[in-house]
Amino acid sequence: MGVTGPPGPVMDRDEVDRALARLGAEHEAIETSLLALQDHAGRRLLEGAELTGVTKERWTAAEASITLLWAYFDAYADALRGAREIRSRRRWSSREDLVELTELLRGESVTVAGSVAGSVAASVAGPAAGADEGAAPQITGRLSQSFTLSTLVDRMNELYASSLDMVVTADAVWSALPARIDLLAAELQRTRRLAHSVGVRPGEHPAGDDLERITRTLTALREQVVSDPLAFWVRAQGSSAPGGGRPDTTVYDREARALEDVRREIDAVLTVRQDAEQRLVRLRDVLSRADRTLAEARTARGEVLAKIAATEVPVVSGPPTALQEQLATAAEYRRHAQWHRLSPLLESLEQKAEDELLRARESLSAVTQPLAVRAELRGRLDAYKAKVARHGLAEDPFLIERYDAARRMLWSAPCDLRVAEQAVLRYQQAAAELLTAPRVPEQGGPEDRRGEQ
């Protein structure tokens, strides 16, 4: 591109010196940043990693941007060096020198060679408007480009910011997620060993299947994080600073919660292992008490059938063989350390055993009900006899006859409860009539003491 004259007014010596000082400071700052980017741990990791996905695409563009950055920086340094040489020719620069310096410092005097710009442009060409924020700035496809020093600085800052963002983002993900995944994987291995020791294995217990799934997920997650870290980055809303955002730990957090659920399940199985023997002893005791109660009910039923007539006596069932078989199965599980199977079986058996004991007690109560009725009738008959005696009517022939009839029925076997109850009622009625009827004391007869009462 030809030069037709200085862009704007010609700079004086003071303006030239101030511009050179500013450009020199920018040169040092850019050089320091480029060297820091070159030595950045994330960049070295990116260079040595086998990348995939969005990270591979972004790193290909970032590498080209970094190459172009150094080309721009070299051109910038050459231009600055040339300007300094012109300024150093003489203490008091001539007008020709000032015109040349003005063109160099303010005009489009820096041209990047076509062999550099053209070869890099295709790699670092940025996306159209509205594409991802982290993509490299757009580079035109021209084989050579001319810049002012100020424009070149702006372009280098853009390329540096996009390249640094990519490097910092990948490094942040690599610094956070793989280490956390490794710690969770180590905890997973300890949990798997503990699960295996209590019989929680894949295909035999849901928690064992969960451990296998978590293992596969963590293995795949780590491989994906290492090869494509940018796929696990959540950019902060409204942030334009390099590395603005956070690692995406959604999958990691989900698997960590799943592992914690499995640990709780295994802890429950461990609890079963610790108190299994005591629970089995209690189960045997409850079932033994139920059996004894049923045996007592069967004995009582025979007694009732022998002593009570004309009454319905329920049949007493035998001991539940199914519960005994399940109890034997539970003992077998304990002997073979199959705690994951023993746990639900014990819970079921404990409830069934309590229900069986309650059923046996209800059966005993139902069977012995006729004997209880007979005992109540005997007690009522004796109570009325005592009451009659207190009122001086114990020798009444009619009451004696009624009492003897009722007593013979209640103390004979088999006893007809319905007939015996009627006999007791007749004795009660006769006693009540005599107790409420007015009587005149007779010589030698019993004295009426109702007034004294």
In the sheet with the most strands, the strands line up as: 1-2
Rg is 52 Å
Provide mean pLDDT, rounded: 80
Total beta strands: 6
User: How many strands, what sense, and barrel or not for the largest sheet?
Assistant: 2 strands, antiparallel
Structural class based on helices, strands and sheet pairing: mainly alpha
Distance between the termini: 145 Å
Helix content: over 70%
Molecular shape: rod-shaped
Give start-end ranges of low-pLDDT stretches.
Answer: 1-5, 118-141, 443-453
Number of domains in the coordinates?
Answer: 4
Order of helices and strands: HHHHEHEHHEEHEHHHHEH
Strand content is: under 5%
> Count of helical segments?
13
Account of the 3D structure:
The chain is mainly α. The protein has four domains: 13-167; 173-272, no CATH class; 273-367; 371-436. The chain contains 13 helices and six strands. The protein is rod-shaped. The model is unreliable at 1-5, 118-141 and 443-453 (pLDDT under 50).
Sum this structure up briefly:
This protein has helices at residues 13-39, 41-48, 53-87, 95-106, 114-124, 149-197, 206-227, 250-307, 321-335, 339-367, 369-390, 397-410, 417-436, and strands spanning 110-112, 145-147, 233-235, 245-247, 308-309, 415-416. With 453 residues, the protein is mainly alpha-helical.
Task: List key phrases describing it.
rod-shaped; two-stranded antiparallel ribbon; mainly alpha; disordered N terminus; 453 residues; 4 domains; 6 strands
List the helices and strands and how they pair.
Blueprint: H1 13-39, H2 41-48, H3 53-87, H4 95-106, E1 110-112, H5 114-124, E2 145-147, H6 149-197, H7 206-227, E3 233-235, E4 245-247, H8 250-307, E5 308-309, H9 321-335, H10 339-367, H11 369-390, H12 397-410, E6 415-416, H13 417-436
Parallel strand pairs: 5-6
Antiparallel strand pairs: 1-2, 3-4
Helix pairs in contact: 1-3, 1-4, 1-6, 2-6, 3-4, 3-5, 3-6, 6-7, 6-8, 7-8, 8-9, 8-10, 9-10, 11-12, 11-13, 12-13
